[in-house]
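Student: I would love a firmer grasp of how sequence relates to backbone shape in proteins. I am handing you a single protein, as its sequence and its fold in token form. I am told such tokens are a discrete way to write the fold. I hope you can help me see how the letters and the tokens relate. Take your time, and here it is.
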Amino acid sequence: MSVALIDPALPALPAIFDPVGLSALFSRPVHADRLRHKQGVSAVARLRTRHPGQAPPADARRAPDADPAPRWVATYAPHHAAKLDKTLARAANHGYDIDVIGLPGRHTLVAGPIGLDMKLHDTLRAFEGHHRLSLGPGRVLNYNPHRRVVFRMETAAGATVCKAGRADPAETAFLADLARRGVPVLQRIIPLDAPQAGTLRYYPWFGQGDLQQVAGEDGHDAARSAGAALALLHAQPTDLAPRPARDLLHKLRTLNERDLHLTPGSQARLSRIHAALVRRLGDDDRTALVHGDFSADQVLVDASHVVLADFDRSTTAPPGTDIGSFVAVDLLQERASGRTLRGHFLDGYEDAGGRIDQDTVLAWTAAHLLDRLDEPFRSCSPSWRDDTEERLEMLAALVA
């Protein structure tokens, strides 16, 4: 199915999937990723600038300082144009640099800086007049339009990471409890010379990068340490969980509906995969305190130490969901980099007392691959249909 057929109400959507055409429209080499698509309403994505002659990366992962500050790009259906009008008015009032590009049929692409993000601008206004705030090149570590931005700043406490976006007020106490119990986690700090708000979280700068970025034997050792740290997390009392358990089998049903929208010709295969996963995971009644979104990029590494970060989805669930999440992301990364961490990670988990059932891990790995089946589409990959088909084949092999 072509992008144009996915949402006829947004004729500008295909332009976001065409890095060559998009670069021509913006008169500079750009590509889009991190797409947030509301059927019949809007599409907003992260807009990244790449160096001339450089192809868009397959998974959009690069060192932060290799990329100028990201922006957002959006298009709206005509009956939701009022949202665009508000953004344009805010840009004029606050002096923001904004691109407005008209397309045939009176449709428009709009791009602007992070400070003009429709869902984040109120939060970032807390920094107005704050001399240390910079969202320029090398400062933005992660940006998910309409959700959150993570950036590095300097405070009296030293290099500090700020996460701006919706947050759970119980997180500070939860992380402190884990640290007291010996779980290596990145705890929050309160810089006295930075603005305070419920949507701003601060953390100390730790290490040289995440586990995905560590090479060679150092990466293998860090992967074992990450496995041991996860086993320790899973051994903690479940009543520490900051949020209630999720119905994971219900989530599988919603994934099936979502994926059929993107791959309507795969209904039979998806139905078989979904039914097999429901059967296999329905018997996994173990419960543990879980990270909820575990992968190598949630593990920060410094010399021989690791800490676990980003507990925004922590809850109670079968421990296999964390292990399967790590393995699923590692499988996808291996196809791009040729490197694998999962063997060392699983060794560290078992050596620290974690229990692993291989069939259960395979089932949870498949569930997380299903959860990520739409990633090529959300990454605005020009080859998203072929990439999605490749992931479907991986899934089918796992649940065969």
Notes: The mean pLDDT is 88. The chain has 14 helices and 14 strands.
